[in-house]
User: Fold this.
Amino acid sequence: MARMLRKVVAILNRLIQLDYDAIESHKSAMSKLSDAADRAQLGAFVTEHRRHVDELASIVRNLGGEPASHGDLRQVVARGKVVLGALVGDRAVLEAMRGSEVESTAHYEAAVSQPGIPVDILAVLERICADEQRHQAWFAARLAPVAGASATPLK
Assistant:
């Protein structure tokens, strides 16, 4: 049992790191975007990523672990993509952010498929995974607007 709990804590801490990375890369992207609606949407995503960190950190503590307190080197790579994208325009910034969300979604999908995750923790992971899938869908829709849609065209 203790070994399984250590495994769950390790999985949760990796997800916490990914959410910290997402927070920082989204904040960086927000400062580079010209479209106010896109900045507002990324701000809403930052709020959700912070909620994910808080929820997962609480679970880690309840399991007797120490929650991760920061992201990892992926944060530097993600920020670099955003900065480089900003040289080209909003579309490139959003493309970089979409890549980050695709990665986060894949990690959450892998976590919910892990055997032995307690049911109560699994429910939290499934809800957060749904958030990540929704974020990813927003980026996909924003980067491929339907003709005649009200969204601001991307440059």
Notes: The CA atoms of residues 118 and 132 lie 21 Å apart. The mean pLDDT is 85. The chain has one domain: 2-143. The radius of gyration is 16 Å.
